[in-house]
Write a structure and sequence with these properties.
- One of its GO terms (molecular function) is peroxidase activity.
- It is a single chain.
- The protein is of the alpha+beta class.
- It is built from four helices and six strands.
- The strands form two sheets. The protein has a four-stranded mixed beta sheet with strand order 4-3-5-6, with helices on one face.
- Strand 5 and strand 6 form a beta hairpin.
- The chain is globular and about 35 Å long.
C-alpha cells in the first residue's frame, strides 16, 4: 500500500472502484453513520461538495456500523436515508470496517498517515481526513469538528 491511489474500495452495489479515479482532486474522506449524533454533518459535507465540486473537490463517505451499530443493516436503506434526509449527492460507498484487524485498507492507510490525538485508530463516526491533489493526507479532523471548519484548510488545496 504505497499510496492512496493504489487502493480499491467497494461501492454500494458491490462493485470495486479504484481510488485512482480521484487522482488530482482534493478529497474529504469520512466514516459516516446514519443514526449518530453527528449525522447532521451530512448537510455540511454536502454543502462543501456543492460549493467546491466544480473546483475538483470530492467528498467520499464510508458508512460504518462499528460504533454502537449506528448504521442501518441494509445498504440500500443507508443510501436512501442519506439522500432523502440530507440531499447527499457525493459518492457514498459500501458499509465498511474502519478500525481493528478487519479495517478497510483505505482506513489503515489514512490512520497511518495521520494519527489521532491519543490513538492511531478511528475513535468514532465522522472522523474526517483532508487529502491534497497528490494523494497526501494533510489533516485529520475529530468527529466533533464541524465540516464548516475544514473549509479554510480546503481552500488552500483548491
Amino acid at each position: 500500500m504505497n499510496n492512496l491511489y493504489s487502493i480499491e474500495v467497494e461501492k454500494p452495489n458491490g462493485e470495486m472502484q479504484s481510488l485512482k479515479e480521484f487522482e488530482g482532486k482534493p478529497l474529504i474522506i469520512v466514516n459516516t453513520a446514519s443514526k449518530c449524533g453527528f449525522t447532521p454533518q451530512f448537510a455540511e459535507l454536502q454543502q462543501l461538495y456543492e460549493n467546491y465540486n466544480q473546483q475538483g473537490l470530492e467528498v467520499l463517505g464510508f458508512p460504518s456500523a462499528q460504533f454502537n451499530s449506528q448504521e442501518f443493516d441494509n445498504q440500500e436503506e443507508t443510501m436512501t436515508f442519506c439522500q432523502k434526509n440530507y440531499g447527499v449527492t457525493f459518492p457514498m460507498f459500501a458499509t465498511t470496517e474502519v478500525k481493528g484487524p478487519s479495517a478497510n485498507l483505505l482506513f489503515k492507510f489514512l490512520t497511518s498517515e495521520q494519527k489521532g490525538l491519543l490513538t492511531g485508530t478511528i475513535k468514532w463516526n465522522f472522523t474526517k481526513f483532508l487529502v491534497d491533489r497528490e494523494g497526501k493526507v494533510v489533516k485529520r479532523y475529530a468527529p466533533q469538528t464541524s465540516p464548516e471548519k475544514i473549509e479554510e484548510d480546503l481552500k488552500k488545496l483548491l
